[in-house]
Automatic annotation (TrEMBL):
Superkingdom classification of source: Eukaryota
One GO term of the biological process aspect: response to auxin
InterPro entries given in the database record: SAUR_fam
Protein name: Auxin-responsive protein SAUR68-like
Family: Belongs to the ARG7 family.
Organism: Juglans regia
PANTHER family tied to this protein: AUXIN-RESPONSIVE FAMILY PROTEIN, AUXIN-RESPONSIVE PROTEIN SAUR65
Amino acid sequence: QQQTSFLLQSRIPYHLTDNMISAKKLLKMARKWQKLASIKRKRITLPKATGGEIAGSCNTSAVADKGHFVVYTADKRRFVLPLEYLNKEIFKELFRMAEEEFGLPINGPITLPCDAACVEYVVAMIQQNIAKNLEKALAIAIATECCPSSSYLPPHVPIPNPQILQICSF
């Protein structure tokens, strides 16, 4: 009786109420679709050994995997790096320089004021577990815009890529 009187009051024909979805069921369906969409979203994965993977040839998803962050270089190359790198003096200096040069990004990506070769070099140095004093020296060299080259490095530190002799382009 109450349902019939409610239908008459709202003037919804009875045959339409059989096909209507409740708000609770609609919310449940929306959450399910959101979950499926986020699962199917392509993400860039990083092998643990490499540390810094250039994602220029990968997809363009703005989302990094858990435990990683994304930075771009001045020449528009994208790097997905582990969060542990945020504690390194070199990256602290690069972020300070990026803030001075570009300001703090509100909705855009973080852009470092150096090219991809410089970031590749820094990542290679971090992966080789360079000494703290060498890390600080590299941070100072980057800060003073003196690009480190193979002639500045100790003989026991191998160059990961011979093409990276001109390291940074500021």
